[in-house]
Model the fold of this input.
Amino acid sequence: MGRDGDRVRRTGTMTRIRRAVTVTGQAGTMTGERVDRDRDRAGRPRNARPRDGLGRPLDRTASGEPTTPDELHLAPGDALALAQDLIDAGRPFHAHEVLELVWKSAPADERDLWQGLAQLAVGLTHARRGNGRGAVALLRRGAAPLDALMDGGPHGLDAVGTRRAALELADRIEQAGLASVPEADLRLRLIVRLIG
Done:
C-alpha cells in the first residue's frame, strides 16, 4: 500500500489502542470507577491474579498454580537447574520466572544471556499456548545472545546445544506449523547433561 494505506492502518491501530486504554486502563473501567492495581511491598505494580500452568491469568476467585516469589534468590547454576526441571515438567512459564529473577540481579556482562534464556522459556510458553508465531519470534530472539558463547557457557549452560535446539525448533514450527510438533518436543536442554 502507499502512504494513504499506511496512514489508515496506523490510525486504526491507534484507535484500537486508545479504545483498549479507555476500557481497561488505569483510570478506571467502562463505568468510570477507579481500579486499584496490585502492588508489591515496594509499591511496584504486580499482577496478583492467579495463573494457570502456562501463566495465563485466571479469575481472581480461581485457585491457580503457585508462582515464583520475587524474594527467591538462587545461585545462577541452581537457577539453571530449577529452570531445566520446570521445562522438563512442561512448565516453561515458571522456568521463565526463575530465569527472569536471575536476569534482573545478574552482573551487567551476563544480563543479555539471562534475558535470552528467559525469552527461550517464553518462546516455549507461546508454543504450548498454541501461538506458533510468538514461539518462533521468542525462540530466535532468545537464541541470539548464545552466539557469543560458542565455546560453552557459564554455570553449566550448554550454550551451543541450547542455541542449536532453539533455532531448529523455531524453523520446524515456522515451516511445518505448530501442530506438527509433539508436546514432548516443546522442551529445550539448557544445561550440560552429566554422564556418570
In short: The longest helix spans residues 3-24.
